[in-house]
Amino acid sequence: MNKDLLDGRLLFAIPKKGRLHDKCLELLAGADIQFRRPNRLDVCLVMNHPIALVFLPAADIPSFVGNGDVDLGITGHDVILEAEMQDQVTEIHRLGFGKCALQVQTPENGPFNSVEDLAGKRVVTSFDVIAGAYFAKIDERLNLTGDNKTKIQYVGGSVEAACALGLADGIVDLVESGDTMRAVGLHAIATVLQTEAVLIKSNVPHRAHHAPLIDLIASRIAGVIAAGKYVVCEYNIRRQSISEATAITPGRRAPTISPLEEEGWVAVSSMVEKKSVANTMDQLMKIGAEDILVFNLDNCRV
Ligand SMILES: Nc1ncnc2c1ncn2[C@@H]1O[C@H](COP(=O)(O)OP(=O)(O)OP(=O)(O)O)[C@@H](O)[C@H]1O
Ligand SMILES: O=P(O)(O)OC[C@H]1O[C@H](OP(=O)(O)OP(=O)(O)O)[C@H](O)[C@@H]1O
Ligand SMILES: [Mg+2]
């Protein structure tokens, strides 16, 4: 692509593959950021905004954003810390996907069942910066020095194979469902950190002229995230039960309450967190609510 085509455009980095890629495409669609990505091209122009999307490995995005090579990006909180870019980028929003934990794992029936047991031994990981700092503190606490310190070795992937191959006494790797860990006979002995996908912007000042567009994208993305988190719950209830109903469905500011044509009855409409809606409906039934309806949100600004 001709570099002039990118002039003046806000550069937005998106994971090109892996666990975060599909969710990012959904977010872009929800935020009405329209583009066509020609086969195998990693840079493409957005049709309805002065933006270019740059598709990069998730682990490279923190340094691209932190160094000001691109303005905005989506990646994991974990890889920002691993790239030591937390002071060069600002996390604008947590995005609610890519949630997992970075955990210290050892063979289930082995001799190392705490990080103190494992300290001084061989640890294999793709997160050698984070794991190195983590074990350095433990080594210091246990007065392990020189050759007795924990030996951290970097591998680029398939970390979980290291113990079975006899290359490691323990690993530090991501765990979501725990299926991978259990499948290879490992168990978690400590959690180093929790992570999820985040929207980040560069702290490099020469990109500041893009601030209004960054605010617009951030607000649209926040709307898409909130729309996935909430549903609208509507129901009818007797007027005398309004205060109980309001306690169960307080809404974000307050529920909308409108009179029904039938004397003594009102209709209530309120946003409710998706994850607790079944429980909310049970409670509404108990106070006599009728015709309880739940609607998904396509998009919102809240
Ligand atoms: N199992 C998982 N569940 C949830 N989020 C995850 C999981 N694995 C990784 N992530 C998140 O996604 C980010 C990118 O990891 P991912 O493994 O998808 O990228 P990749 O290694 O570039 O891709 P691939 O594994 O396909 O080569 C991680 O830094 C982490 O934030
Ligand atoms: O707890 P789980 O739900 O099993 O998820 C954890 C697995 O997901 C990631 O691997 P990924 O699929 O990205 O493969 P990779 O090891 O090749 O990066 C991570 O490295 C773990 O291996
Ligand atoms: Mg991976």
From TrEMBL:
Ribonucleoprotein in keyword set: no
SUPFAM superfamilies for this protein: GlnB-like (SSF54913), Periplasmic binding protein-like II (SSF53850)
Signal peptide positions on this chain: none
Gene3D superfamilies assigned to the protein according to its UniProt record, in alphabetical order: 3.30.70.120, Periplasmic binding protein-like II (3.40.190.10)
Subcellular location: Cytoplasm
Any one cellular-component term (Gene Ontology): cytoplasm
UniProt-listed Enzyme Commission number(s): 2.4.2.17
Domain Histidine biosynthesis HisG C-terminal: 227-299
InterPro entries documented for this protein: ATP-PRT_HisG_long (IPR020621), ATP_PRibTrfase_cat (IPR013820), ATP_PRibTrfase_CS (IPR018198), ATP_PRibTrfase_HisG (IPR001348), HisG_C (IPR013115), N-reg_PII-like_a/b (IPR011322), N-reg_PII/ATP_PRibTrfase_C (IPR015867)
Associated pathway: Amino-acid biosynthesis; L-histidine biosynthesis; L-histidine from 5-phospho-alpha-D-ribose 1-diphosphate: step 1/9
Pfam families for the chain: HisG, HisG_C
Swiss-Prot/TrEMBL keywords: Amino-acid biosynthesis, ATP-binding, Cytoplasm, Glycosyltransferase, Histidine biosynthesis, Nucleotide-binding, Transferase
One example of a Gene Ontology biological process annotation: L-histidine biosynthetic process
Protein origin, superkingdom: Eukaryota
Chemical reaction(s) catalysed: 1-(5-phospho-beta-D-ribosyl)-ATP + diphosphate = 5-phospho-alpha-D-ribose 1-diphosphate + ATP
Location (main, coarse): cytoplasm
Family: Belongs to the ATP phosphoribosyltransferase family.
Family matches, as NCBIfam families: hisG, HisG_C-term
Protein name (database record): ATP phosphoribosyltransferase
